[in-house]
Structures are given as C-alpha cells and as structure tokens.
Amino acid sequence: MDSIEVLMLLGIIVLLLILTFLAVAETALNRISRVKAQAIAETLGTKSARALFRLVSHPERFINPLLVTVTFLQTGQAFLTSLLADRLFGATGIVVGFLLNVIVFFVLAEAMPKTWAVLSAERAALLTARPTELLVSFPPLRLISRALIGLTNVLIPGRGLKEGPFVSEQELLGIVEAAAEDEVIEHEERELIESIIEFGDTVAREVMVPRPDMIIVEHDSTVSAALDLAIAHGFSRLPVHAEDGDDIVGLIYLKDLIRAEREGQGGSAAIDLARPVRFIPENKPVSRLMREMQSGKFHLAIVADEYGRIAGLITLEDCLEELVGEIVDEYDIEELAVQRLPNGDYLVDGGVQVEELNELLDTHIPDEEWDTVGGFLFGTLEHVPEPGEAVEHDAWRFAAEEVEGRRIRLVRVSVLPPADDKRATEPERHDQPADNARR
Question: Is the whole-model pTM more than 0.70?
Fold first, then answer.
C-alpha cells in the first residue's frame, strides 16, 4: 500500500469512529424525555447535563443536522471504501469491499453503539450531549439541514420536523402503565392519569342518564306532588315535562318546592317554579361541558339528539365521575352494575358501557356501533329479545335476562365451553330396540 492508500484507510477508520459516536448520540438523545433531562440537569448541574436539557427541549434543532451529518459521512465512508478496494484488488475487490463494508459498518457503527445507547441511555446522552451541541450549532450545517427539510416539505407537504416529535395518546398511556409497573406511581394515581387522558375523548352521550331513566315532573303536577317525587328519588333538581309530554320546559329545584310548601302553596302548579334549563348536543365533549358548567354556574343540562329529541340529562357529578370514579353519598343506594353469580356467570346491567365491560371481563365486544351492553344485544339480534334469547360472541354468551318494554334491563354473561367440551356436554342419543323403547 502506498501513502495515498494508507491515508484512505485511515480516513475510513476515522469516519467509522465518528459514525459510531453519532449513532450513540442519535439513539441516546431520542430516548431521553424532556422531563428526565430537566431532572438530570437539576440533580447534576454539570455542563453536559445542561447541554442535554437544551438539546432535548428542542429536538428539531439537533435531529435534522445530525441526520444530515450521518448521511454525509456514510456516503463518504462508502465512497472511500469502494475506491480503496478498486485500487487494491480491482473490479472484484469492489464487490468484496462492498460486502465487507456492510458487515463492518453494521456491527461497529450501528448495532454495537445503538445497543449500548439503549442499555445505558442516560450515560450515553451525557457523554454525547456537549459534542453534539457543538456540532449542530455549526452555522453551515444548520443552513444545509434547513434547506433540505424545506425541499422535503415542498415534495411532501406537511409539518416535517419543524414542530418536533409528537407523542400519541396510546404512547402516553403506555408510559403511565410502565411507571405503575415499576412502582414509580401508585395504582390509584395511574387510574386517575388514565381517566384524565381519556376524559378529552368522552362525549355527553356516553355518560348521560338516558331518557327512560329520567325522573320528570309532569306538566300538571302540584308542588306537593313534585316535592314527594324529588324526596322519593333523592334529587335536588327535576326537569319538567311540556304540556304535550315530549319536551322539557325547565328545571324545578328542591329548595323552591320546600319553600313553596312551607308557605302553604302545596296545591299550586309546580311548573310555575320552573327555572330555565340548558340544552346541549349529545356529541358535546364532557371536558368542554364541565368548564361551561363551572363558568355558567349550572349543574344540570338536558341532552338532545341531532333531531332535537330529548336523549337524556347530564349533571356535573356525572362529569366528575368520569375523572374520579363513582361518587356515592349516604343517600345513594349503591347497586352493582356487574354481579358475579355463584355458578360463575355475570349479571350485567343493560346500561353498562361496552368499553367498561370489555375492561372488567376482558371481553371483546365492538364499541363502534353500540355504547351499552343492552344496545349490543339489541343491535345484534335486530329485534326486541325475549328473556333467554342470546348472542354468542368471541367465547362469551350474552343472554337477555330481564326485558322491560323495548329495553333490556339485565344481561346474563357466561363463558362458552371450548369446542371439545361443548361436544362432550351434549347429550348422547342411543338407538334402542322397539320393545325396550316401549318398556
């Protein structure tokens, strides 16, 4: 080998070392979150820790220049390798050199450094933070990376990496689950965080009290009758029917009924005490509704469907229960929505949300078309079921246990036996001679 070939070999080795360093930096920096980087900077207080925090706080500033540098060096290393192989061994050497370069490059500059960076992310990030910050702050490199990203956005319109990486809701839930498994947070804290994340996707229809379950004061009810109704069901606010019985004209407050009763007006019309009521669409996000309830100082709203018909009602307590779970006071009669029977079956309230049952029993009922278990049974059978009618889905049997009018009140959920067991439990039939059959 002459001096030029030696220099080329040294150049290839130097480029491989730099690419190894950049592979460690790219992997480690991408595995450190902003929150973790801030904690490291506050704990250590070193220049490397502060550089790490600055890089992770604005990942779009280092990702693009780093990728441009890696691409440039990889291309240069491959070019020098091919050139050196051609000088030493000719055309055959180029093929051998290409294959050898793939193996060496993958092992030394990809697999080994990135594996170490994954296993020792914090240490690797601190080691590479300051050199990486110096590299990506080089003005020509930043200019080139911006120009290339601009070209990319012209060819493929979009945000590119201008706004940095994005974390999906599912990834965030996975982080919370991992934190709970590592005992970084308590189980109750995990449930609350998951409720808050999912809260933004919840709409009024999913948490409202449906129209059949609403307790409504009739249009011609007296104050005394309305008061008896409110006390019997333990409600402080009751909607009032319109004269035709199909609409809601207002809300009656328990304190107004008590005041009128004490003033001797028990026989007067309850509707005279009605106050205005808010109407909302059934697809209104619960998070937005709760903020409106706080600012508007109202605790109950009537939910209407797209045709303007009354679909149900929703209270501030219903919104809060989506965040913190069921709220039961000393006057509430707590009824279990899902009860386990002695034989292993489950008795489920027809109004239980499909998503909730899937989570409790690990069933796989589709929830795109139905909100409740009763709705799933009704929609699958395509008619009002008789008690005992059932649907089999995904190793589970869902049977109508109690039907009231057109509404499925209770559903019996049971596990189907495996196919072999099912055949084994079927009664066997044996043909018998005629005289034995007569006997």
Answer: no
Nearest to 58 by CA among 129, 139, 166, 164: 164
387 lies in the same domain as 278: no
Closest by Cα among 122, 329, 84, 303 to 213: 303
Residue 143 and residue 16 in one domain: yes
> Which residues constitute the domain of residue 178?
169-199
Q: Does residue 26 sit within a domain?
A: yes
Query: Of 168 and 297, which is predicted with more confidence?
Result: 297
Nearest residue to 198 via CA among 172, 161, 226: 172
The rounded distance, in Å, linking the Cα atoms of 437 and 429 is: 13
Report d(CA 377, CA 383) in Å as an integer.
9
The mean of the pLDDT values for the chain is 82
Q: How many domains does the chain have?
A: 4
Assess whether 248 and 392 both reside in one domain. no
Domain co-membership, 7 together with 144: yes
pLDDT at 332: 55
- C-alpha to C-alpha distance for 403 and 383, rounded to whole angstroms: 12
β-bridge mates for residue 302, sequence order: 279, 313
Run of H or E residues at 348: strand 346-349
State the amino acid at position 406 in one-letter form.
R
Distance CA 395, CA 379 (A): 19
CA–CA separation, 84 vs 72, rounded Å? 18
pLDDT of 224 higher than 90: yes
Confidence of residue 168 (pLDDT cuts 50, 70, 90): low
pLDDT for 72-98, tens place per residue? 888 888 888 888 887 777 777 777 777
Q: What is the pLDDT of residues 40-79, one digit of tens each?
A: 888 888 899 999 888 888 887 788 888 888 888 888 888 8
Q: Which residues on neighbouring strands pair with residue 403, listed in sequence order?
A: 408
pLDDT: which is higher, 103 or 313: 313
pLDDT at 229 over 90: yes
DSSP alpha helix (H) spans, 215-345 = 223-233, 254-262, 286-296, 316-324
Q: Are residues 49 and 140 in the same domain?
A: yes
Q: Tokens 């059932």 correspond to what residue?
A: 390
For 364-433, the DSSP string reads ----SS-SBHHHHHHHHHTSPPPTT-EEEETTEEEEEEEEETTEEEEEEEEEPPPHHHHHHHSPP-----
Q: Return the pLDDT at 419.
A: 59
Would you say 313 and 302 are in contact if contact means Cβ atoms under 8 Å apart? yes
Do the beta carbons of residue 438 and residue 423 sit within 8 Å?
A: no
